Amino acid sequence: MKIKEGFELQNVCGEHIIVPAGEGNMDFSHIISLNPTAAYLWEKLAENDEFSINDMARLLLDEYEVEEEIAIEDCKLIAERWKEMGLVE
């Protein structure tokens, strides 16, 4: 997986918001807000060309006190949601 080009994470009044960065992505009908954990993952994953669920889980395990199985399941849910929203490919 990789984060689709044309989206940026912005901090707007303390909220983590994904915003379109190019003319082809100028659909503001949906605002995508991330919680702090998802925003942390987005920032770290944006530094990589590609990543897997295990890469995502490793980031959570390195940053938070969470069991590996829970981290993997949570990352599967996040990745699926990001796919549904067209944020990753």
How would you characterize this protein structure?
By secondary structure, the protein is of the alpha+beta class. The chain has one domain (7-84). The chain is built from three helices and three strands, in the order βββααα. Strands 1-2-3 form a three-stranded antiparallel beta sheet. α2 (53-63) packs across α3 (68-84). The longest helix has 17 residues, at 68-84. The N and C termini lie close together (5 Å). The model has no long low-confidence stretch (mean pLDDT 90).
What distinguishing features does this structure have?
3-stranded antiparallel beta sheet; alpha+beta; 3 helices; single chain; 89 residues
In total, the number of strands is 3
Question: Main beta sheet: strand number and arrangement?
Answer: 3 strands, antiparallel
Average the pLDDT over all residues and give the rounded result. 90
Q: How many individual domains?
A: 1
Globally, the shape reads globular
Number of helices: 3
Point out poorly predicted stretches.
Answer: none
Judged by helices, strands and strand pairing, the structural class is alpha+beta
Spell out the helices and strands N to C.
EEEHHH
Gyration radius over CA? 13 Å
The main sheet orders its strands as 1-2-3
Could you estimate the helical fraction of the residues in percent?
40-55%
User: Span between N and C termini?
Assistant: 5 Å
Strand residue content: 15-25%
